[in-house]
Automatic annotation (TrEMBL):
Organism: Candidatus Lloydbacteria bacterium RIFOXYC12_FULL_46_25
Family per record: Belongs to the RecR family.
A GO BP entry: DNA recombination
Gene3D superfamilies in UniProt: 3.40.1360.10, RecR Domain 1
Known role: May play a role in DNA repair. It seems to be involved in an RecBC-independent recombinational process of DNA repair. It may act with RecF and RecO.
Keyword Transport: no
HAMAP family according to UniProt: RecR
Keywords: DNA damage, DNA recombination, DNA repair, Metal-binding, Zinc, Zinc-finger
Family annotation (InterPro entries): DNA_Rcmb_RecR (IPR000093), Rcmb_RecR (IPR023627), TOPRIM_dom (IPR006171)
Source superkingdom: Bacteria
Domain called Toprim: residue spans: 83-184
Designated name of the protein: Recombination protein RecR
Keyword field contains Zinc: yes
Length: 205
């Protein structure tokens, strides 16, 4: 396998990217100048050194100089409402909700969705870490919002997570809700506008 094929194979592992698109990426790079390629390589290398995963919500965030915190700016912000926890599938969902400005609580990122026939759920989503967090914070959490997309796989994920956390939630008398009207079938949270997200939050049940 030559360099073009190897690089194309790597691009094909990106979400939503097939073999043809991955080849286009390679040929696009071949047309760029050396300065562009060097900057791209440098940025990719810097991911390991400059980006951290929040130890609480598992969001990726930029590490700041002279700051030793292992939690992101949302989790360390004293103005956020710690008594509401929203569970989302991925970082881009959190970013979409933050851009909308309609939510001021805390988050937990599952890290993806659960394929319907998956035999090892914990290898796909952070359900164990979620249960640990809820156990730790159940004394002050009043509501947990399951904010998954409206797709078959996302709905399956929500059902699995609901069943996993239900014993803890019931014992601690925590209200468990899901996003309501506003999101149409097939909708991903990251592509929803502020009004749609606001209606979905207001209509949660």
């Amino acid at each position: 396998m030559d360099t073009i094929q190897k690089l194309s194979a790597h691009f094909a592992q990106f979400p939503g990217i097939g073999a043809r698109q991955s080849k286009r990426f390679v040929y696009f790079l071949l047309k760029k100048d050396r300065a562009y390629l060097h900057e791209l390589v440098s940025l990719i290398k810097s991911l390991e050194d400059s980006v951290l995963e929040c130890t609480r919500c598992h969001r990726y965030f930029m590490k700041k100089h002279n700051e030793a915190s292992d939690q992101c700016s949302v989790c360390t912000n004293p103005a956020r409402h710690k008594n509401i926890l929203m569970i989302v599938e991925k970082d881009s969902d959190l970013e979409a909700i933050e851009r909308s400005g309609v939510y001021q609580g805390s988050y937990f990122i599952l890290g993806g969705t659960l394929p319907i026939l998956e035999k090892d759920p914990e290898s796909k989503i952070r359900v164990r870490e979620l249960c640990t967090l809820i156990e730790k914070e159940k004394s002050f959490i009043k509501e947990i919002i399951l904010a998954c997309a409206v797709t078959p796989e996302s709905e399956h994920t929500a059902e699995y997570v609901h069943a996993a956390i239900e014993p803890i939630v019931e014992e601690a008398h925590i209200k468990l809700t899901s996003l309501g009207r506003g999101l149409s079938t097939g909708t991903e949270l990251e592509y929803s506008d502020a009004d749609t997200l606001r209606f979905a939050l207001e209509g949660r049940k």
